[in-house]
């Protein structure tokens, strides 16, 4: 069987990361349609969103280190196959129950594919270029978000079958990436270490402070994602006053574009520096988003989407960079899975909480609570980054 080159494997792994976020975000611009067609409340639509991270957390808890034993390729293929099933369930869905099952399969798929794809991007990087892996991962996921919101918005607004065609297109793309991933090398730099069996994820003791920074930073980024992906279309439609699916999708795509641009722009910065800058940007961006809902201003919402996107990008890339740089190669996927587990768990909790608040007390209060939650995680990541960053300098001064 023909095997892809190292460079080709790098870009296929990046494509897998993009597919993970496209799959995750694909229903975002559809939620208002589902709400109208089936009479769903914000609590139900955010529950549909939240099934994904909840299932993902359970799968990560059991299978998070699977690719460290059976190889990146086999785990990625399993994940893409599960994602394809989830997308097809959305494409065929005659009722809301199908959406819940579809989101569960999407959660399984991303849980199995994203961590090994992230590790593979590091391992397939050109010699001396592994530090850019977290930036490429972040940019790839942003591309997935852009495709989800722009293609989804355009198909919903201007094509037939608005609640189905979007997913048939995505299913075709997933199938192509799945077929290409078949030709990935069977093993990466992290060779199988004995026989895999279910076990809890463990973080090597020597990197727990760095893990804490990574987990807080990625969690803050995913909390931004919970607000934008589960409520963004509703905020644009109900608080800002835009009822065009393509316009709303373009606004959300602007957020993802900011993520991609910031990831590339910050690729040469120290991970701790990126985390600090990302925390500040996330807090500022969400503050402006709250103001946009009060003022019913699309311009402020656009500015908030850009600034929050920069915050997401730096928090995500910096958090992954801190962990990837310090995790041993044979524990890399397992440690990254632990980061994703924490982040997705809180993303699910945040989405469900905000949906409940939006249903009972309105979108405005839900957005304010979301912004406050993001600020707490961001401040935690900033404080730990400053503490660890100051430590070598203090040691040097003492010497």
Descriptive notes:
The protein contains 14 helices and no strands. It has 399 residues and is an all-alpha fold. α9 runs parallel beside α11. The longest helix has 36 residues.
Short description:
This protein has 399 residues and is an all-alpha fold.
Topology of helices and strands:
Elements: H1 6-25, H2 31-38, H3 42-63, H4 67-70, H5 72-92, H6 96-123, H7 133-158, H8 165-181, H9 208-240, H10 245-265, H11 271-295, H12 298-326, H13 332-361, H14 363-398
Helix pairs in contact: 1-6, 1-7, 1-8, 3-6, 3-13, 5-6, 5-8, 6-13, 7-8, 7-10, 7-12, 9-10, 9-11, 9-12, 9-13, 9-14, 10-12, 11-12, 11-14, 13-14
Give a quick set of tags describing it.
mainly alpha; globular; single chain; disordered C terminus; Growth Hormone, Chain: A; 399 residues
């Amino acid at each position: 069987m023909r095997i892809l080159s190292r460079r080709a494997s790098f870009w296929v792994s990046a494509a897998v990361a993009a597919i993970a976020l496209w799959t995750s975000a694909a229903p975002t611009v559809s939620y208002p349609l589902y709400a109208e067609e089936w009479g769903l409340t914000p609590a139900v639509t955010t529950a549909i969103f939240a099934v994904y991270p909840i299932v993902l957390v359970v799968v990560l808890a059991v299978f998070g280190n699977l690719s460290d034993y059976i190889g990146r390729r086999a785990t990625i293929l399993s994940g893409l196959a599960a994602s394809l099933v989830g997308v097809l369930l959305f494409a065929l869905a005659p009722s809301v129950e199908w959406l819940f099952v579809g989101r569960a399969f999407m959660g399984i798929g991303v849980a199995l594919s994203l961590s090994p794809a992230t590790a593979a991007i590091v391992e397939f990087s050109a010699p001396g270029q592994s530090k850019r892996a977290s930036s490429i991962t972040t940019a790839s996921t942003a591309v997935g978000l852009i495709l989800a919101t722009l293609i989804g918005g355009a198909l919903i607004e201007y094509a037939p079958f608005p609640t189905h065609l979007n997913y048939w297109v995505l299913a075709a793309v997933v199938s192509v990436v799945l077929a290409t991933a078949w030709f990935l090398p069977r093993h990466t730099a992290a060779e199988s270490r004995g026989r895999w069996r279910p076990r809890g994820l463990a973080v090597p003791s020597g990197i727990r402070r760095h893990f804490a920074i990574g987990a807080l930073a990625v969690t803050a980024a995913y909390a931004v994602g919970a607000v934008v992906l589960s409520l963004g279309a509703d905020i644009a439609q109900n608080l800002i006053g835009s009822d065009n699916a393509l316009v709303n999708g373009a606004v959300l795509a602007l957020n993802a574009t900011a993520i991609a641009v910031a990831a590339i722009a910050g690729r040469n910065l120290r991970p701790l520096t990126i985390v600090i800058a990302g925390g500040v940007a996330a807090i500022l961006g969400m503050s402006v988003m709250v103001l946009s809902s009060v003022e019913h201003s699309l311009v402020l919402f656009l500015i908030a989407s850009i600034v929050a996107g920069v915050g997401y990008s730096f928090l995500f890339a910096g958090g992954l960079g801190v962990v990837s740089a310090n995790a041993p190669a044979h524990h890399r996927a397992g440690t990254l899975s632990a980061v994703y587990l924490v982040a997705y768990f809180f993303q699910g909790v945040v989405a469900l909480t905000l949906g409940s608040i939006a249903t009972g007390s309105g979108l405005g209060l839900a957005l304010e609570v979301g912004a406050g939650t993001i600020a707490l995680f961001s401040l935690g990541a900033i404080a730990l980054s400053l503490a660890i960053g100051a430590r070598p300098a203090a040691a040097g001064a003492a010497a």
